[in-house]
Amino acid sequence: MESRSSAPTRPAVPPAPGRVRGVRRYTVAPADSAVPRLRHAVGDFLREHAPLSAERRDAALLILSELLTNAVRHAGPLTPRIAVEAGLDGARLRLSVEDGHPYRPRALDPHPEAQDIGGRGLLLVQVLAAEAGGDCGVDPTASGGKIIWATLPYDRA
Questions:
Q1: Sorted alphabetically, which Gene3D superfamilies does this protein's record hold (predicted)?
Q2: What domains can you pick out in the chain, each with its CATH number?
Q3: pTM for the full model?
């Protein structure tokens, strides 16, 4: 797992919401083992640098797990590397997962058939982001892939 960071390594005191800035970017091969490794790495970054309550941080990590799992499962065959980014600005956290697959998914209907047990991950991402006052979306990349992202506003832990 490669990591690149523009955030300070350890602040002396917890950061104030208006002063938090930085990006942590990871690139990994699309393997199932990448999901827990990146969830742990991003969780450490958020605990150290983001003014998030434990509940908001858990929601962010669930969102990350859903987006990364989708990229590994669905884009893996067409993507030699998947990029994950956790960005902090003055007011919010932005999580994104970039892959090389051209398909742009949409969240499913909120009332899928009862026998369907999968396919609700993006709907969960939408709900978690909206409940926190954030947003989510999909953007194309110049190379024909996509970036699926979610934002969550800060709260005070």
A1: Histidine kinase-like ATPase, C-terminal domain (3.30.565.10)
A2: 2-6+19-107+118-153 (3.30.565.10)
A3: 0.81
